[in-house]
Specification:
Blueprint lengths: L20 E4 L10 H10 L15 H4 L4 E7 L4 H11 L6 E6 L3 H9 L5 E4 L5 H9 L4 E15 L8 E3 H8 L10 H4 L9 E5 L4 H11 L10 E3 L2 H9 L4 E6 H6 L5 E6 L11 H5 L7 E9 L6 H10 L20 H12 L23
Parallel strand pairs: 2-3, 2-4, 6-10, 7-8, 7-9
Antiparallel strand pairs: 1-3, 4-11, 5-9, 5-10, 5-11
């Protein structure tokens, strides 16, 4: 069954807990990711300017005087961006402690709307149910897109029979009606071999799960339940890398980080033979459909004026960090200066609420933030 335990997190790359935080303080902190996830973050260090040209912040002296704690939780997909921004920020604000957890988008919103966190990482817009939960606790929030992401459909490198799947074939694999029925590759396409189909995907608290199910199956959270699930994308990487017959999906950045262990599958959205491979270019130009999307942070309005929070969020959206969004270490798609400037104005104006009143939208654009 697809549970939050998924692979029981006891695999090679299991996380110690989906609700633990990775704290940045004097270069150490509590471990929110264990195994390879934690060691990768430690070994990579901060992204460099090789993939872009970040500028030194004009308020460098003021940043050095800041102190305080910022608590962040939510999406494991958004984690690499927020974590990188935190690492870069602390190069200038060494006395600000920033913890970044990976409870998943849904799990993170539960904490955020209960007032337990300052910033929420989200791989989809806030849902109507979550917005009501926040309102019930008088939690106002400022919604800020931070990057574009593509969902990668991946298989094991030893898989020689699939290079492209149609949206209809993905639905045939993942729709609720497939449970206990579609369990062989030959059932997906007759030319595929007679091999067991083993599926790996994000758990039900994941915004990636919500978006994929809506984009492919037509309804958010509508999915077969008999797949191996985890909120930690590194566990999914391990599962697919260890099984020739496996298929899974997660954010493109995690594929790019682990491409030596995995094989990327192109997607034919319309079933017309036009197979599109996810990349920075195809996500940015809108041709990788239906699996590209914006990702977000939500800032609790009541903490937005705290000096350390205000400085961190403005740094996150500034040219001192945004050129690194497409770096090898971060691996997402930049929104572009026009959007980052508009989104920073939204934050500094304290504009509360969401511009996605109905929740996630397949193929959403961000022009609404320019108005």
């Amino acid at each position: 069954m697809a549970t939050n335990d998924g692979l029981v997190r006891a695999g090679l790359l299991a996380a110690a807990s989906a609700v633990a935080a990775l704290a940045l303080a004097c270069g150490t902190g509590d471990s929110g990711r264990s195994g390879e996830a934690a060691s990768t973050a430690a070994s990579k260090g901060s992204p460099t300017a090789e993939a872009g040209k970040p500028i030194e912040p004009s308020n460098k002296a003021a940043l050095a005087t800041l102190k305080g704690n910022i608590v962040i939780d939510g999406s494991s997909t958004v984690y690499p961006v927020t974590q990188a921004a935190a690492e870069e920020f602390r190069n200038y604000a060494k006395d600000v402690r920033i913890s970044v957890g990976i409870a998943g988008t849904g799990g993170g919103f539960k904490k955020f709307c209960a007032g337990e966190t300052d910033i929420q990482d989200a791989s989809r817009p806030i849902s109507t149910t979550e917005a009501i939960a926040c309102a019930d606790k008088n939690i106002q929030y400022i919604e800020l897109p931070v990057a574009f992401d593509g969902l990668a459909v991946i298989v094991n490198p030893k898989n020689t029979w699939v290079t492209c799947l149609t949206k209809a074939e993905l639905k045939k694999m993942w729709e609720p009606a497939a449970q206990a029925k579609i369990n062989n590759w030959k059932q997906v396409r007759d030319s595929f071999p007679d091999k067991p189909l083993k599926l790996f995907g994000p758990g039900t608290d994941s915004g990636t799960f919500d978006y994929f199910t809506e984009a492919i199956n037509g309804t958010a959270k509508a999915s077969r339940g008999d797949f191996q699930a985890s909120e930690d994308d590194n566990v999914l990487v391990s599962g697919v890398a260890g099984d020739e017959a496996a298929l899974g999906y997660f954010g493109l950045a995690y594929y790019n980080e682990n491409k030596s262990k995995l094989k990327l599958v192109s997607v034919d959205n319309a079933g017309d033979g036009k197979c599109i491979t996810p990349s920075i270019a195809t996500v940015n130009n809108g041709t990788y459909l239906p699996l590209s999307r914006p990702i977000f942070i939500y800032v609790k309005k009541s903490v937005a004026e705290r000096p350390e929070v205000k400085a961190y969020v403005n740094f996150y959206l500034s040219k001192s960090f945004t050129p690194l969004v497409e770096s090898r270490e971060v691996g997402y798609v930049s929104l572009g200066d026009k959007f980052y400037d508009a989104i920073a104005k939204r934050f500094n104006a304290g504009t509360a609420g969401t511009l996605f009143p109905k929740g996630a939208e397949v193929g959403a654009t961000l022009d609404r933030y320019l108005q």
